[in-house]
Design a protein that fits this description.
The chain has 576 residues and is of the alpha/beta class. The chain has three domains: 13-159, Glycogen Phosphorylase B (Rossmann fold), CATH 3.40.50; 174-365, Rossmann fold, CATH 3.40.50; 386-575, Rossmann fold (3-Layer(aba) Sandwich). It is built from 21 helices and 18 strands. It has helices spanning 27-43, 55-58, 81-94, 107-115, 148-155, 174-185, 212-228, 244-251, 267-276, 286-293, 307-310, 339-342, 346-358, 414-423, 435-438, 444-459, 487-496, 510-519, 533-541, 553-570, 572-575, and strands spanning 18-22, 48-53, 69-72, 99-102, 120-124, 135-137, 194-199, 233-237, 258-260, 279-283, 298-302, 317-321, 386-389, 427-433, 467-471, 503-507, 522-526, 548-550. The strands form three sheets. A six-stranded parallel beta sheet has the order 3-2-1-4-5-6. Strands 9-8-7-10-11-12 form a six-stranded parallel beta sheet, sandwiched between helices. Helix 1 links the parallel strand 1 and strand 2.
């Protein structure tokens, strides 16, 4: 992610006494914004923070220690229409705010802050609103995938925020917990029970929903497993208004004590019920993030949405996915056969949940990002290593200039071979020259689609890429990123915290071998590209001969695994 840039005069923190924060509109986004909101209060400890949010998410922040006042944006009632917006601007004007921090990215948020006469208006330069912001923050590099928690956190860095984001935290009172315990007791669920939360719905759209009968089957199997081990299991079904029939349908298949709370809780009651859970099994929804904020282990089922940006943040969580080439599509409804969700089996979810229920408590001390993937864990000889990969002619067929995602075809054996590297612990990073963009043969949007297709094909083989870096420049531009220049690798090393001394580079061109030598990676030449005798002589003259020449990706991977084992045997302390 590129560093945000703050324009205008520096904010003098001691002069800021009243801050308006425009929070996100969606429940999950609001939870993921919480670490940044909490840190804002630490940056301006003397200031009173007013949080402006819609009623649908306001309950999240009642009694929150970083919020001094909640202000409701009732866009469907008294703040509806042009007159309503003018009324809201007047209310904000009377608040006498010194600074507006706009986590919500819409044009309207900046317009209201400007109309309210707030002198410092701070937020990402999105949605054409740059001129309305006194401190526009540069948008993140759209080619770099970052988690939404990181996205909100990074927005505050020009204000002085440092370090990495902490996990979201929410607060409920003891009285709210006691009230929920009483409600659960009415259906036979006690405080001693292992409570399995099930959240089968999604207000965003049907594409995000796993199948109700599979939720029921997985929950029933978990309860039988727990009861068989001497622990009494119970189930609570959570969901939004309108999802009551869905909750009742699942409950009808369960034999354990079950509370159907779908559509019958306030946000505060939902929070209390979620906190009470021992485990939550859920689609990618707001309650998933609420559970994570309370430290409740989550089994999150992902299909059309991007797990890299909206997965539960923190520890002791499991992501269950069935990789398909069309995901993530971010569509509300699937136009084809819902294959991303259909491929997730009851066994997949049950196994992930069972492992979370038996995982040692010490895992909670591992820090953020220790999500459990539930995949085989062979000897990870490449832990801490990076394998850089050329694209055309190395991973996929090279037609000259690849211009359409539909034309992406993996070379034989590439998927399974890269899966071996991933299983062994390696990080996989593509570095590719794409002068076709600079020459006008394709657009950046075309290139983005091609890379999405490539990632999807590899994920089907459990060979997910960690990053893709590309140079879009024309060769005559003399840029610092076009191979054999080392710009792409240096950027990857900086952003991904890579040790280049523990890296390999697989490519099919002279420039790949030259790049490998210049950054200290071990070069492996695959002869799937155009490597003739003159090319080899150029490599010899440049002192960039590869460490190994192979005819296919499986051969390259076999050599790397053997070489890494030899390195570890030669210097166990260094390679451990």
């Amino acid at each position: 992610m590129s560093s945000p840039v703050l324009e205008g005069e520096p904010v003098i923190k001691t002069s800021v006494q009243r801050i308006l924060v425009r929070g996100p509109n969606w429940l999950g986004d609001a939870v993921m914004c919480e670490p940044a909101l909490r840190s804002l209060k630490r940056l301006f400890p003397q200031a009173a923070v007013t949080l402006l949010v819609k009623p649908s998410v306001a309950g999240l922040f009642e009694r929150h220690p970083s919020v001094d006042r909640l202000m409701l944006y009732e866009d469907s009632r008294r703040h509806a229409g042009l007159s309503g917006k003018w009324r809201l601007a007047g209310e904000l004007r009377r608040g006498g705010f010194d600074l507006a921090v706009l986590f919500q990215n819409a044009f309207e948020a900046a317009l209201l802050a400007a109309a309210a006469g707030i002198p410092r208006r701070y937020g990402y330069a999105t949605d054409g609103r740059t001129l309305l912001l006194s401190e526009p923050v540069a948008k993140p590099d759209r080619h770099k995938v970052v988690h939404q928690v990181q996205y909100y956190w990074d927005m505050l860095k020009p204000l002085g925020l440092t370090g990495e984001p902490v996990s979201p935290e929410l607060v409920v009172s003891p009285q709210e917990e006691e009230a929920m315990a009483g409600r659960l007791k009415q259906v036979g669920i006690t405080t001693e029970d292992v409570l399995i939360g099930v959240n089968p719905g999604s207000t965003y759209g049907g594409a995000k929903r796993w199948f109700p009968e599979r939720f029921a089957d997985a929950a029933e199997r978990l309860c039988r497993r727990l009861n068989g081990s001497g622990r009494r299991a119970a189930v609570v079904l959570l969901g939004a208004r309108g999802e009551e029939p869905l909750g009742r349908a699942i409950a009808s298949h369960l034999t354990a004590p079950t509370a159907v709370l779908s559509g019958s809780t306030t946000i505060r009651e939902l929070m209390a019920a979620t906190k009470r859970c021992t485990l939550l099994v859920t689609n990618d929804t707001g309650p998933m993030h609420i559970a994570a904020a309370f430290g409740v282990p989550v089994v999150a089922i992902f299909g059309p949405t991007d797990w890299r940006t909206t997965s539960p943040f923190g520890v002791k969580h499991a992501l269950v996915r069935h990789p398909v080439e069309c995901a993530p599509c971010l569509l509300r409804d699937c136009p084809i056969d819902h294959r991303c969700m259909a491929g997730v089996t009851v066994h997949d979810v049950y196994a992930a949940a069972d492992k979370l229920l038996t995982v040692p408590e010490s895992i909670a001390e591992q820090g953020r990002g220790s999500q459990i993937r539930f995949r085989p864990s062979p000897h990870r000889i490449l832990e801490g290593f990076t394998v850089f990969l050329d694209r055309d002619g190395t991973l996929n067929e090279d037609p000259g200039y690849l211009r359409s995602a539909a034309d992406v075809k993996l070379l034989p054996g590439v998927g399974p071979a890269l899966a071996r590297l991933k299983s062994a612990g390696a990080r996989l990073v593509v570095v590719t020259n794409q002068s076709g963009v600079g020459r006008g043969f394709l657009t950046l949007k075309d290139l983005e689609a091609i890379h999405a297709r490539l990632e999807g094909l590899l994920e089907q083989h459990e060979a997910a890429l960690d990053a893709i870096y590309f140079c879009p420049h024309h060769p005559d531009d003399r840029c610092r990123c076009r191979k054999p220049a080392r710009g792409m690798v240096d950027r990857a090393a900086s952003e991904l915290q890579l040790d280049l001394r523990r890296s390999y580079l697989i490519g099919d061109h002279v420039s790949d071998m030259q790049l490998a030598k210049s950054v200290g990676a071990k070069p492996v030449l695959v002869t799937t590209g155009k490597v003739d005798a003159p090319a080899v002589e150029r490599l010899r003259a440049a002192q960039a001969l590869p460490d190994k020449v192979v005819s296919s990706m499986p051969e390259a991977v076999e050599w790397i695994l053997n070489d890494a084992a030899a390195r570890a045997a030669a210097d166990p302390a260094k390679e451990s």
